[in-house]
């Protein structure tokens, strides 16, 4: 079949056309349908995909996902290091817990604190242990103190508390001059230090658990 044969096709009498011509026409119709379908069906889908890439999966979204992936990959790569740090923290926690006295040793610790001040030549005007505050692992006892002494002796006393075998911390420190004169009538160098010395003890098996902060329903 030649090009002239295709030009001279009478579409009003398609049924009378030779079989080869009918085959060419059917093939052409099929291809045209596929192309048209591709344009009207796939074109909107491609547009939607492009729109999604420009919005939801635009540069900011891609950058955020990339950073999230890099962060998670970094955590996975450093997991052994994190595990080692956690183990070290647990060991330090156990060491600190072993430094805590039990209830039977608290009286001795209070005496040691008092003796540390006296050993530095300080005068205790107040030494008042407060109520214990239990937590999940230990109980803390605040001790309100007021001691008199020179600036050097007060500093040495604070240093001695920090070096005790038991954990003792000083907080809420306030130092004020004492309005007094020595035997020669000169202004005294004595200072007053008010502070809260806090010590800690390990919980005994018979200790009540700390109160819960949860409100009843």
- CATH class annotation of the largest domain: Alpha Beta
The pLDDT mean sits at 73
The radius of gyration is: 44 Å
SS content category: alpha+beta
Please give the CATH architecture of the largest domain.
2-Layer Sandwich
> Which oligomerization state do the chains in this entry correspond to?
single chain
Low-confidence regions: none
Secondary structure tally, helices: 6
CATH topology of the largest domain: Alpha-Beta Plaits
SSE pattern, N- to C-terminal: HHHHHEEEHEE
Classified in CATH, the superfamily of the largest domain is Ribosomal protein S6/Translation elongation factor EF1B
The percentage helix is 40-55%
Describe this entry's structure for a reader.
- This is Type IV pilus assembly protein PilO.
- The protein is α+β, with helices and mostly antiparallel strands and 217 residues long.
- Helices cover 49% and strands 20% of the residues.
- The protein is built from 6 helices and 5 strands.
- Strands 1, 2, 3, 4 and 5 form a 5-stranded antiparallel sheet that branches.
List keywords for this structure.
217 residues, alpha+beta, Alpha-Beta Plaits, 2 domains, five-stranded antiparallel beta sheet, 6 helices, 5 strands, 20% strand, elongated, Transl_elong_EF1B/ribsomal_bS6, coiled coil, membrane, transmembrane helix
Q: In summary, what is this structure?
A:
The chain has six helices and five strands, in the order αααααβββαββ.
Per-chain topology:
Elements: H1 3-7, H2 19-54, H3 59-77, H4 79-98, H5 106-119, E1 123-129, E2 133-134, E3 138-149, H6 151-162, E4 168-177, E5 191-202
Antiparallel strand pairs: 1-3, 2-3, 3-5, 4-5
Helix pairs in contact: 5-6
